Amino acid sequence: MSKLDPTLLEAANSEIAAPRHTRRKKLFIGLGATLLGAGLGYGIVAFVHGAHFVSTDNAYAATETAQVTPAIGGIVREVHVADTQRVRRGDVVVMLDDTDARLALEQAEAELGRAVRRVRGYVANDEALSAQIAARASEEQRAAAQVAAANADFERAQVDLQRREALAESGSVSGDELTRARNAYETTRAALAAAQAQAAQSRANRNAALGSRDANAVLIVGTTEDNNPEVALARARRDQARVNLERTIVRAPVDGVVARRVVQVGQQVQAGAALLSVVPLHELHVDANFKEGQLERVRIGQPVKLTSDLYGSAVSYHGVVAGLAGGTGSAFATIPAQNATGNWIKVVQRVPVRIRLDADELAARPLQVGLSMSATIDTRSSVN
Question: Which domains are present in the chain?
Answer without folding.
Answer: 68-99+249-279 (2.40.50.100), 101-242 (1.10.287.620)
